[in-house]
Design brief:
The complex is a heterodimer of chains A (245) and B (466). Chain A is built from seven helices and twelve strands. Chain A is α/β, with parallel strands linked by helices. In chain A, the strands form three sheets. In chain A, strands 6-9-10-3-11-12 form a six-stranded mixed beta sheet, sandwiched between helices. A four-stranded antiparallel beta sheet of chain A has the order 2-1-4-5. Chain A is globular, with a radius of gyration of 18 Å. In chain B, strands 5, 6, 8, 9, 11, 12, 14, 15, 17, 18, 20, 21, 23 and 25 form a 14-stranded mixed beta sheet that branches. Chain B has a ten-stranded mixed beta sheet with strand order 4-3-7-10-13-16-19-22-24-26. A two-stranded antiparallel sheet of chain B has the order 1-2. In chain B, β3 and β4 form a beta hairpin. The chains are: A alpha/beta (245), B alpha/beta (466). The interface between A and B is medium-sized, with 26 and 24 residues.
Chain lengths: 245, 466
Amino acid sequence: MSNNLLEIKNLHVNAEEKEILKGINLNINNGEIHVIMGPNGSGKTTTANAILNNPAYTKTNGNIIFNGEDISNLKTDEIARKGVFMSFQLPEEIPGVSVTNFLKYAKNKITGEPVKIFQFKDELKKYMEELNMNPKNMERSLNVGFSGGEKKKNEILQMLVLNPKLAILDETDSGLDVDAIKIVSKGIEMFKNENNAVLIITHNTKILHSLKVDYVHVLVNGKIVKTGTQELAKEIEENGYAQYK
Amino acid sequence: MKKTNLDEINRNIYDIKNKDEYDFKIKKGLTPEIIEEISKQKNDPEWMKEFRLKALDVYNKLELPTWGPDISELNMDEIATYVRPKTGLSNSWEDVPEDIKNTFDKLGIPEAEKTSLAGVGAQYDSEVVYHSMKEDLIKQGVIYTDMETAVREYPELVKEHFMKCVPVHDHKFVALHGAVWSGGSFVYVPKGIKVDIPLQSYFRLNSPESGQFEHTLIIVDEGASLHFIEGCSAPKYNKVNLHAGCVELYVKDNAYLRYSTIENWSKNMLNLNTKKAIVGKNAKMDWVSGSFGSKISMLYPMSILNGEGAKTEYTGISFAGGGQNLDNGFKVVHNAKNTSSVVNAKSISKNGGKCTYRSLVRINENAKNSKSSVSCESLMLDDISISDTIPTNDIRTDEVEFSHEAKIGKISDKTIFYLMSRGLSEEDAKAMIVRGFANPIAKELPVEYAVEMNNLINLELEGAIG
């Protein structure tokens, strides 16, 4: 089996009848961290949503291959169960469902195996300590009344617990202060190993100060216009996206 | 994945139909002769027979309500108002006929009695077939019996309270109830006695084209406390059944009463029930209510806060599926200083079902320094379902704190996508959102009822998507 985890081929995607992605190609191998950068409206969030087949977006051309299988037309939950995770820019609030119960339920759906409650709670507690989260949040309703930072950390917690093969982090760093970004970076490092991969989607470069990445792609107007290494991010930090428009 | 149309939902235990066997079933319809026959069959004392006939008079004079759901399909000429099961009253399950006992077994009543209840009453059609209470409560002077026994053995207590809290003139179906009432429970908790474990009465209507008119009368004397649970269900028939029960609650000074209901009538039932509590000085009345079944429900429990410092709280949820019109709510009258009321009502509608929250908050001029806060939230699971809020606030003094908050919402596609990205199917995602929405109410219910409510929600949702 090849080391290739995700292959996006000539992906075109519409949102509300308007073409947002205009032919994206992307290859992610196990063990790699990729970053897609780009100005607002370039199609970053659309890319993440298209991989998980959000029905609000329509693929008009191209394929998404995950672990050797075409997942372009699978339902979101089927894709999730294959091992794709997405951290949301604006996580939804679910009143009346505690973080613990939600994650226990989701973990059971993802793994197809019963979750051992005590072991699970210990694991949860451990991750929450590492992420500097208030342990009381375990029993609070999912994301309800959480601050922006707490919501983002909660997404990272979910990533650690659900342990996907590919984690897509959509603007997880945006709106966070330096300390919170460091914690998110720490979470990514805890998660990352040779058998999984991370795709970070961001419009700024702050997170790259505390995290080493393998590839940086610049997305402008629905196309990847340049691919490079961490150096490329530095260049964009200094010069912005103007030269790519 | 199990997918069914709503009509085909297997309501399993609730839909077990026993053969329509009875000892006596009154002719359909309503005439003085029929009322006299019911009275004779029930061995009423003379005063009760007179009471029934007067109530029938009132019934004939009152008009159907001009507001709320359309109940014109109800034809009293088609309803048998009294069906006596083929058994007497017993205090041992052993003596209850097998098919009737099996029904209650499947509803979990005898089991709950062993594990978590201090007493149980079970009514089948028009009569109570089982009543029992723990020995130590009897020794403390607590009375828990069927209503007929109470009329015979505690005539003074009954005469003083029977249909005084809910007078027959209240509305047409209360008058009907007064004329044909049968069965129900009577509870008296003497001064200062705290009943720590709940009492429960379960009402099961088996007979088609009939009505259930049980009367529940509870008196919690000064400084006493009680938790009473009421459950009800019926199998589904093609013709209309009627439930017009009446619940009268007297919470005397410094007393506490919690009244919990899970109502799961079949979807051919018109549920026109009346419940009212009179709350004394520094006493507290809590209502917890889950309303799932029935075709049409008009149910507005009411607290009258008559004593200074009286408090009441209402926590309720309604769940309407296709063809159901649940018009539920809460009424409170603040009639003394320093009284307070808290309302937390929720409703869920799907498949074209309709939920209306209809309420009254009245704060009289003498109720200075009172507080009332009302919150109602509705969740609609699709575009064809209906949700409405019709509050009436009648506040006659300035020295009050009053707030009313209403929220009507739908499940957003974004929320579904979020949950599906965590591996939940669309059905699982919707069920999780609905369970979360109902959770604050479920928490107020006794554990086995919370479980039952969750099961009912799952049962209801099976048919919701597809």
